[in-house]
Specification:
With 183 residues, this protein is mainly α. The protein is built from six helices and no strands. The relative contact order is 0.26.
């Protein structure tokens, strides 16, 4: 059942990529396959590496704690991630909006911000022994999100700053509660 929770996390984390794509297409009015591929490769590689690293650390942790305790640690990580993301929504959203994703350094910074949340979440999934292959779901979801926002985002008349992290907060809280209740 943890794999279904991972898929929910993957879909919710794609909303951060939607925000990145909408912002990038607003600033960069011309559509380019090269820009799309650079955004896709940068975000996907950054986030997937952090997810795989988090899962590896979580799986390493299962060697030292038993299943029930690992489940409690995973739930605690998800709850702490929800608290961190509420703080992000209240304090760092303005900072993230000031980063230009059309330049590589800005794109990499926003990808790392997305990856930090994914790293913490994937630590919990590593503790729940989710397979590494589940991280493969991130690439097609990110590609579809960036393709759609690159095409649709050019039509924006003004930049909308919506913090999509609130959905991730709900997913993290649901994951924390579900992890506790399911065992």
């Amino acid at each position: 059942m943890a794999e279904y929770l991972f898929l929910t996390f993957a879909v919710a984390s794609t909303l951060d990529i939607v925000a990145l794509g909408l912002t990038a297409s607003f600033f960069d009015k011309k559509w380019s396959l090269k820009d799309l591929l650079v955004r896709f490769l940068t975000t996907t590689l950054t986030v997937c590496l952090l997810v795989l690293g988090g899962m590896a650390l979580g799986k390493l942790g299962t060697q030292y704690v038993d299943g029930t305790l690992a489940n409690w640690f995973a739930s605690s990580l998800m709850f702490l991630l929800a608290v961190k993301m509420v703080f992000d929504g209240l304090k760092t959203a303005k900072f993230k909006r000031s980063i230009n994703p059309t330049v590589f350094s800005g794109l990499l910074a926003l990808s790392v911000f997305t990856g930090i949340n994914a790293f913490i979440y994937s630590l919990a999934f590593g503790l729940m022994n989710v397979r590494y292959s589940m991280a493969g779901w991130l690439a097609p979801l990110f590609f579809v999100a960036l393709l759609a926002t690159s095409i649709l985002g050019r039509r924006q008349q003004r930049l909308h700053h919506i913090y999509n992290g609130w959905i991730m907060v709900l997913v993290a809280l649901f994951g924390a509660i579900y992890t506790i209740v399911s065992k």
